[in-house]
Write a structure and sequence with these properties.
Blueprint lengths: L10 E3 L3 E3 L12 H12 L4 H6 L5 H4 L3 H19 L5 H20 L1
Length: 110
């Protein structure tokens, strides 16, 4: 089961850590949740190459085919472009820009 909505409001940290708001939950490749983190890391100011290194600590992401990660990055950028529409709110705009930045980075790495 994948969460797919890794935003700061969905991770509650205290004595225990809780992942909440499972509205976008789905099934898929085990590396996808780690890939979703990359967009959020880029939105928070990380460069794409640096953001890609953090999920590498998870074996499923480290073993993911590079071509599949690139396809995901492109699809994710298209999804955020569609969600953002012509007049996005601030956080949607950040995610659209971050996902586009990551997708461009993946294209340049090919």
């Amino acid at each position: 089961m994948l969460h797919t909505d890794w935003n700061p409001a969905n991770v509650l940290i205290g004595e225990r850590t809780w992942l909440v708001d499972w509205g976008w939950a789905t099934r898929g490749a085990p590396w996808l949740d780690a890939a979703y983190w990359i967009t959020w890391l880029v939105a928070a100011g990380h460069q794409p190459d640096a953001a890609e290194t953090l999920p590498l600590e998870f074996p499923a992401f480290a073993a993911a085919p590079a071509a599949a990660v690139t396809v995901f990055a492109r699809a994710n950028a298209r999804m955020w472009a569609q969600l953002a529409g012509t007049s996005p709110d601030e956080w949607t705009s950040y995610l659209r820009q971050a996902s586009e930045t990551w997708a461009r980075h993946r294209r340049n790495e090919e």
